[in-house]
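ok new one. same drill as before - structure tokens go in, u give me an amino acid for every spot. 102 of them this time. try not to just spam alanines like last time pls lmao
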């Protein structure tokens, strides 16, 4: 039960802290972008079974692939989408930490 709590805490609570600390004037907008980045989990719908608690998402699902991660890193260099890139990369980091806890 501790692993899911940590995982979802990293997905939901830490982004709120990141938004509030690093983007105080627009923290609500930034937090919503971080939450919206969870849309990349839709690629889980392509897997069978859809949810496997012992499967590492990184390198398995299309939006969690190394190719996609490279794209998210490239997005960091485009100012207009930098926060989106940060949100996507935070999602990937969170999922990677979850893989290490397996």
């Amino acid at each position: 039960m501790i692993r899911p709590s940590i995982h979802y805490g990293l997905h939901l609570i830490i982004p709120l802290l990141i938004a509030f600390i690093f983007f105080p004037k627009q923290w609500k907008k930034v937090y919503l972008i971080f939450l919206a980045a969870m849309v990349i989990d839709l690629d889980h719908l392509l897997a069978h079974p859809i949810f496997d608690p012992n499967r590492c998402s990184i390198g398995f699902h299309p939006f969690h692939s190394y190719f996609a991660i490279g794209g998210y890193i490239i997005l960091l260099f485009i100012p207009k989408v930098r926060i989106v890139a940060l949100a996507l990369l935070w999602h990937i980091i969170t999922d990677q930490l979850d893989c290490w806890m397996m």
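Residues 74 and 92 are 14 Å apart (CA to CA). and btw Helices lie at 2-22, 27-36, 66-75, 82-101.
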